[in-house]
Amino acid sequence: MKHRARPYRSVLYIPGSRDRALDKARNLPVDAIIFDLEDAVAPDEKENARATLQAALAKGGYGNRYKIVRINGFETRWGQEDAKAVEKMDCDAVLIPKVETAAQLDDLAKVISLKPLWAMMETPRGMLSAQEIAAHPRLAGFVMGTNDLAKEMQTRFRPDRLPMMAGLGLCMLAAKAEDIVIIDGVYNAFKDTDGLRGECDQGRDMGFDGKTLIHPSQVEVANEAFAPSKVEIDLARRQILAFEDVEAKGQGVAVVDGKIVENLHVVTAREILRKAEEILALKE
Fold first, then answer.
1. Kind and range of the H or E element at 39?
2. What pLDDT is attached to residue 251?
3. 231 CB-contact burial (10 Å; exposed 0-12 / middle 13-18 / buried 19+)
4. What is the DSSP letter of 273?
5. In sequence order, what are the beta bridge partners of 93?
6. For strand 254-256 and strand 259-261, is the pairing parallel, antiparallel, or unpaired?
7. Bridge partners, 143 (sequence order)
8. Which in 149, 156, 201, 280 has the greatest CB count within 10 A?
9. 10-15 and 210-213 as β-strands: parallel, antiparallel, unpaired?
10. pLDDT tens for residues 151-179?
């Protein structure tokens, strides 16, 4: 797992221009933060936002939270300067919006020399180029921009997200093929806890590593949904023990709860336990 070596259950957007929000984020139980210089910052605040964010990151206090900075696209007048500023910031990665080709990542890599690159996947063209983009050697993760995708596709918002399933699926397959992180899009109705939980469960079932969030009130639901449950942890342990016991005795097939346990199930079980351990480590 070259990039997926930590939890990304909850990934909260924070405006890079707001001191109060930047300060509050230091104490939120999120796995990662996207410090936003793009959509969350008005045009006349863009330059000040860079300085505000750089100062906040230099001050520190974000602990084990993975720090991603979303810049403006290079097609805007702010993108290049954002990237130059982020290169000097105390952050873990840089996120570029509306990626549609690997060439966009090449351009970003010319400015960002060491930090991992992340790509916002939010257009039909981006979905159709997902494999090429995911295979870029500097890319560490996808973030799904489902609001922009819905706008581009002219779809209605539905609880089952059926209209965008093809796009999400293409990105999912590309991310898994290249072993990079893939984070689900936001849930807009931040006061609708049940709706958020349903979309988190759907996203986890699809294979997402976590969910992007727009409000601190959504963090608890995402953290719970994308973490192994006690039942899953217990089953994983029993599967591993049963499989190892059968192997040691040179017997036939391991069975747990009336179901056959093969090597592929043990691989998944060990992954569940590893993730549970990493979540505990983040709290230390």
1. none
2. 80
3. exposed
4. H
5. 68
6. antiparallel
7. 120, 183
8. 149
9. parallel
10. 999 999 899 999 999 999 999 999 999 99
C-alpha angle 228-234-240 in degrees, rounded to nearest 5: 105
Number of H helices, E strands in the chain: 12, 10
**Tokens encoding 49:** 């936002």
| The one-letter amino acid at 171 | C
- pLDDT tens digits for range 65-122: 999 999 999 999 999 999 999 999 999 999 999 999 999 999 999 999 999 999 999 9
Cα 187 from Cα 180, distance rounded (Å): 22
Tokens of 189: 């109705």
Beta carbons within 8 Å of 257's beta carbon, 6+ residues apart: 235, 238
- pLDDT value for 1: 41
* N-to-C CA span, the chain: 23
How many Å apart are CA 252 and CA 249, to the nearest integer? 9
* Residue 18: closest CA among 46, 53, 69: 53
Collapse the DSSP code of 229 into the 3-class scheme (helix H, G, I; strand E, B; otherwise coil) and give the result: coil
